[in-house]
């Protein structure tokens, strides 16, 4: 199994040159075995929940439907453990129509592709238009709704998830083989490593859509959270949240989080709330920001290999979701997402970095959410 993992993640887990700033290090210390529980079924296929624990006070639970993170349990400044992600009581919650991607993996292409179409060379590809005539988060049945093959990896608190997306699925060309490894590190980091390969050129942009609320249910919104992003620029969008193609400086705008700022301070000056792609000007895996909840003392840093992050403040949450955990009311701004990614709509934006994966090449992305107390 170790050999399989290393070959899947060559250049990432096995030959990682390492981040340039200090981020989570794995430990070889023994950790509790991953526990597996039945979690219902989808179309006759069983779904399981995998509990990763590190023996250091942190627990992460993942289901193999959508690769969904259902729980990230961390202690607050008084030592009380709480789940810091928006979640449901059961699979029915994750399966409900309009579930806004709570905790899911997202693919084949995260965020929007304008007019649900793109060209590769002379060929045009049409996608399902599931968002105002545009494609959102991989289409009608994206990776968030797939049943992933799950394999707990020995010797570590790591879970390997694998999914093959057939040629033509949701309109995308090429058979895409995707692997994701969730690792709970010894020092309270959640590391997510993604790898994908294809047999025809196809756009790829994978991410995770967890909604954080570091108060663990004590605060009904994330407006008091303090965010910092080492992002000097962002990609402005039109009324349909499609990038205009420009990359503009954040300085002097409500988008400026280069110095830590309360999320609620400027949100009223952004139409609809924050739902944009911030641009990091850096190479490789680095720490790019942090999130702090002064009430609970929980502090999370964000490290990623990606050039961008979709910072989304749960603007479309309106309290209408069913099966919420313990009956929680998830209204507007109940949680926030930090979806590390390549830029939205890149297949139609010549000014953005290319996101077309070619046969023989390997898509990789690594993101680490690192938890502590301040
Ligand atoms: C992303 C998008 C948002 C919204 C959510 C899901 O973050 O950018 O506009 O669609 O997903 O509700």
Question: What does this entry look like structurally?
Answer:
By secondary structure, this protein is mainly beta. The chain has a single domain, classed as Beta-galactosidase, Chain A, domain 5, CATH 2.70.98. The chain is built from three helices and 28 strands. The strands form seven sheets. A nine-stranded antiparallel sheet has the order 11-12-13-14-28-24-23-18-21. Strands 17-26-25-22-19-20 form a six-stranded antiparallel sheet, with no helix packed on it. The longest helix is centred in the first third of the chain and has 7 residues, at 2-8. Bound molecules: alpha-D-galactopyranose.
Distance between the termini: 38 Å
List the ions, cofactors and other small molecules found in this model. Answer: alpha-D-galactopyranose
Extract low-pLDDT stretches: 1-27
Q: What's the count of strands? A: 28
How many domains? The number is: 1
> Which CATH class?
Mainly Beta
Could you describe the largest sheet, including whether it forms a barrel?
Answer: 9 strands, antiparallel
Which geometry do the CA atoms define?
globular
Number of helices: 3
Give the neighbour order of strands across the main sheet.
11-12-13-14-28-24-23-18-21
Index terms:
374 residues, mainly beta, Beta-galactosidase, Chain A, domain 5, 9-stranded antiparallel β-sheet, 6-stranded antiparallel β-sheet, 3 helices, disordered N terminus, binds alpha-D-galactopyranose
């Amino acid at each position: 199994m170790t050999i399989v993992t290393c070959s899947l993640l060559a250049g990432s887990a096995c030959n990682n040159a390492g981040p340039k700033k200090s981020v989570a290090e794995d430990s070889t210390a023994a950790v509790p075995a991953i526990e597996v529980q039945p979690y219902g079924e989808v179309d006759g296929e069983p779904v399981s929940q995998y509990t990763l624990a590190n023996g250091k006070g942190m627990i992460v639970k993942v289901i193999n439907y959508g690769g969904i993170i259902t729980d990230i349990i961390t202690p607050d400044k008084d030592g009380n453990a709480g789940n810091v992600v928006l979640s449901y009581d059961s699979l029915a919650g994750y399966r409900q129509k309009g579930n806004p991607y709570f905790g899911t993996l997202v693919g084949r292409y995260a965020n929007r592709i304008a007019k649900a179409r793109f060209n590769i060379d002379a060929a045009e590809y049409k996608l399902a238009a599931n968002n105002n005539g545009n494609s959102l988060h991989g289409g009608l049945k994206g990776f968030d709704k797939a049943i992933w093959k799950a394999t707990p990896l020995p010797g570590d608190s790591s879970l390997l998830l694998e999914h093959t997306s057939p040629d033509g699925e949701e309109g995308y060309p090429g058979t895409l083989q995707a692997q994701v490894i969730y690792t709970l590190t010894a020092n309270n980091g959640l590391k997510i490593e993604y790898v994908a390969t294809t047999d025809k050129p196809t756009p790829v942009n994978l991410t995770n859509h967890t909604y954080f609320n570091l108060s663990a249910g004590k605060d009904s919104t994330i407006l008091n959270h303090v965010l910092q992003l080492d992002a000097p620029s962002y990609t402005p969008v039109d009324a349909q949240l499609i990038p205009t193609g420009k990359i503009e400086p954040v300085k002097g705008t409500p988008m400026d989080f280069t110095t830590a700022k309360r999320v609620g301070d400027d949100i009223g000056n952004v139409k609809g709330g924050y739902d944009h792609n911030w641009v990091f000007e850096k190479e490789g895996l680095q720490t790019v920001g942090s999130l702090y909840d002064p009430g609970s003392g929980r502090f999370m840093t964000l490290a990623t290999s990606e050039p961008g992050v979709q910072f989304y403040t749960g603007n479309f949450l309106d309290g209408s979701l069913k099966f919420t955990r313990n009956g929680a009311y998830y209204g507007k701004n109940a949680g926030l997402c930090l979806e590390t990614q390549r830029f939205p709509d890149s297949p139609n934006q010549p000014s953005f970095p290319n996101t077309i994966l070619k046969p023989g090449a390997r898509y990789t992305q690594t993101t680490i959410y690192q938890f502590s107390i301040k």
